[in-house]
Each structure stands twice: as structure tokens, then as C-alpha cells.
Amino acid sequence: MPDMEHMSEEKTARKSPLGLSTSDYYFDLPQELIAQDPLEDRASSRLMVMRRDTGEIEHRTFRDILQYLRAGDTLVLNDTKVIPARLLGHKKETGAACEILLLKRLDKDCWETLVRPGKKLRPGAEVVFGDGSLTAVIEDVLPGGNRKVRFSYEGIFEEILDRLGEMPLPPYITHKLRDRDRYQTVYARYEGSAAAPTAGLHFTKELLEEAKARGIHLAYVTLHVGLGTFRPVKAEDVREHQMHEEWYHVSPEAAEIINRTREEGHRVICVGTTSCRTVESCADENGIVHPGSDNTSIFIYPGYRFKVMDALITNFHLPESTLVMLVSAFAGREHVLHAYEEAVRERYRFFSFGDACFFYE
After folding, report:
1. Chain center to CA of 18
2. Which of 151, 219, 195, 201 is nearest to 321 (CA)?
């Protein structure tokens, strides 16, 4: 077993003042604080509120979020829907068990995927799922080791996937999900994600209706979340890390709501890092959001100048992850690491099914 205390001291010693080293975003996280199951009441999760200008912290419950929102503010929500993208099957030739995880649709029946075991699923290999109503052929090995896979079936692919697929929970969640809907936001609409935009999991339909009744606007954008969101940063210099591309869409209506909010001097509050990355990707240098669809590989870390976002609702993220770096770019690395240390002391629940933070001024 590695000497965890020595590793922690080593990470701390390597921290740099500029926040450009991956180890600058390390913090100690007890394994038992990783939430394994969603709460029965979405809005009953805890909420840490931090002023990003002072670092002042309050401890609340998520349904208290409305106390921090003002009439005229806009919540930007990612309405992507997670597909049951994890397919368990066997090799046709040998019967050996294997797994295919759908990442990105390339055309009607062709997907970019992660496969396991990779060494045995080479181009030409055929995989059978369930009763044989779905089969797949590995067509190519893509840069980075992902596989291009073509599926064959009779009927409607989405219906077959719904029957045979499993929800692709992050690797740090080991419990089986009893209710698929708990890994979807209540406003999920457009299918395509391999992971949920988890900050939105705390909202109930009632909470969103109450927000609208208070004069708070809702702007829905779509970003299909890929597993790049869980990809570790292996480079010590964060500037050398390459983000995976993710597809997004911003409607003219959403762009108009966000732009009008800014024109009128109100706040644009992103619900989750995916909503943040979407609006920051489609905004020009003057902060005007332009509607449309595209792929984004935007990587936000300290030094980035935010063009649109004024406040952020998000979960607690993995040490040394791109998500912690994004939050640090917005609220300051020292403030964020202090908040995370406080969260550990106060036994907050971390990651996808965990508690939430609100960073604002």
C-alpha cells in the first residue's frame, strides 16, 4: 500500500503559485464521502454557498437556493438526456464477455465507443448483445484508443438500447441504480449524453416553477456530456491537457433570454459546468451569445476571462479534475480549495449524487 500521508505532503509541496500545475488542485478526500446513492428528495441535498469575492461560506439546504436568486436573473440549464449507453455482450467467435460504452453518434448506426477488454476487440471483431437482436462490428481504432463501432438490428435502435442498455454511471459509483430517472434531471429532453449534468439533479419541477413565479428566467441549452468529463488530467502542466469534443446547441430563444438578461444588468447563473462551457463556447468577445450548434473542446482553468457567466451552481468534484480547475478559474483556487476542505470537515457528500455549491458575488 502507498504511504498516503507521504503522497499528500508531496502533492502539497509541488503546488505552484500560478495554479498551472495539476497538483495545485489536489485535496484529500475520504472515500466514504463519495455519494453512492441519490437522495429520495432531490432538493434536500446540502448547499454550500460561497461569495467568490470574499470566500465567505454559508451552509444551507438546496431548496434555499431561491433566497440567493433575484427577479430578472436567468438560470441556464442543460436539458440533455442520458442514454442507457452501457451495453454488456459477448464476442461472437469465443463467447467471452465484453462491454461497449456509447460515446458519440457518428452516423445513423455508427458510434464512437469505449470497449472492454480493448485488446480483444480489434477491427473485425463481432459482438452480440442480449438475445441477438443487436450486434456490433468493430470497424476501426480511433486516436486515443476508442473504437468506431457499427451496429446491426431490426426495428428502432433507441427502443433496443432502452431494453438492453444500462445507465453509464461514473466509475466511482459502485452501487446499482434502482431508478434510472434519478440519473436524469427533471427537465432532461434531448437524448445523447453518456453522463448526467449533475448540478441539475437537485432541482425539482416545483422548485423551477417557484423560481419562475419569482421572476427568474429559465434558458435551456443542450450539451451532450461525454466521458471526457471524467478523464483524468495526466499532464503536470494543465495547459498540455486536451479536452474531448462535445456537441452543443443553443436555440435563438435561449440566446435571446441570456443576452437580454445581461443587457438589463441582471445575472446569468449557470447550472453546472456543462451549461457554463456551452455559453462560454458560443459567446463572442463582447459576451453576446450566438445561437447555433457546434462541437466544443473548451478547457477553462485559472486565467480564463468569463464572458457570460456571473454565478455558478455545481457539485463537488474530483481532486485534480478539469471541473475543479473550471470552478477555480471562476471563484479563485485558494477560495475553492478552502471550500472543499470545509466540505470535507462538514461531511458533505461528493460527486454525481452528492451535495451542491453556489458561487456568486
Report:
1. 25
2. 195
pTM of the model: 0.90
Torsion of CA 75, 78, 81, 84, to 10 degrees: -120
d(CA 270, CA 86): 29
Residue 8 has pLDDT above 80, yes or no: no
Q: How far apart are CA 360 and CA 215, in angstroms?
A: 19
Query: Is the Cβ–Cβ distance between 268 and 74 less than 8 Å?
Result: yes
Which residues, other chains included, contact 318 with Cβ-Cβ below 8 Å and sequence gap of 6+?
A: 172, 230, 324, 351
Give CATH superfamily name and number for 4-82+180-360.
QueA-like (3.40.1780.10)
Name the superfamily (CATH) of residues 86-164: QueA-like (2.40.10.240)
pLDDT surpassing 60 at residue 2: no
pLDDT in tens, 262-273: 999 999 999 999
Distance, CA of 28 to chain centre: 21
Return the percentage of the chain with pLDDT > 70, whole number. Answer: 94
Q: How many CA atoms within 13 Å lie on the side-chain side of 198?
A: 25
Query: Hey, where are the domains in the chain?
Result: 4-82+180-360, 86-164
**Terminal Cα-to-Cα distance of the chain (whole angstroms):** 44
**322-331 and 273-281 helices, crossing angle to 10°:** 70
Cis omega (within 30 of 0) for bond into 143: no
**181-215 pLDDT tens trace:** 999 999 999 999 999 999 999 999 999 999 999 99
- Identical topology for domains 4-82+180-360 and 86-164: no
Cell numbers linked to 324: 475543479
Using CA atoms, how far apart are residues 196 and 116, in angstroms rounded to an integer? 22
Residues 287 and 261: beta-carbon distance below 8 Å: no
Q: How far apart are CA 125 and CA 64, in angstroms?
A: 53
